[in-house]
Model the fold of this input.
Amino acid sequence: MAFSATRPQSSIRVMAEKSKLVKVGVVGYGHLGQYLVERIQREGAAAGLSLAFVWNRNTERLRGSVPQELILEQLSQFTERVVDVIVEVCHPRIVKEFGAQFLSRAHFLVGSPTALANPQVDAELRRAAARHGKTLYVPSGALWGGQDIQRLNNSGALKALSIRMSKHPSCFRLSGDLLSDWTEGEGRRVLFKGSVADLCPLAPNNVNTMAAAAIAADSLGFAGVTGEIVSDTKLSEFHVVEVEVTGADGFSVTTVRRNPAQAGAVTGNATRGSFWSSLLCCEGHGGRVYLC
Done:
């Protein structure tokens, strides 16, 4: 009996879809942006990714590292590129100004979820995701157990959530004069303790972990999650994130995460690998917000 070597058209179609590279646009070229761009260039094909474009406020920083044809001179030019996922790794202001536009064209991985502490921004991006059938991805970053918090929240059993982030004072980028007078050797100082909603505008580049937690715990929301930031001159090699989750009937979980980081680094070393893993999840999960 002779067998046909011809594959069914449906199988060919599936194989073609799997072999298609996901086109990624990177917005921001700080330490995290550079890490993502370099890794996509180095091993993107094996991971199913390719660069669609890179934008940075100062385009000169891109010269020599990013092919000229992939550099966006103006961020508004992103509409001229074919892109599947846009990754923001620069500042909450970009999320506010361009987030809904990004979602009209592509899935959006928001690296500055502190922007969503603004109820108007949060509502606008959720509407855009639903309208266009795109996914607003929120990376877990330095948050350990984010999916577990989300499951407890979705079951209705989450009662309280608090997060403390402790770093060397040189690692904080704060608005106002919260930490302008620090000196080496002063030890530990509590800078803020209160709602994550109030904390996000004070430390928009430092508390994205807390914002991700507030999104996972949306029954509590930004106003209902407690955040605390601590300056500690002894933490010259690590960032420390402590999460306390309280559920029903006396249930509780406390985690302590030590993330290697040099003095002055806003983002810990392990967070970069976590962000890469989040990017690999961005394959489309419908018109909704998705913690990854």
User: Anything to note?
Assistant: The CA atoms of residues 13 and 115 lie 39 Å apart.
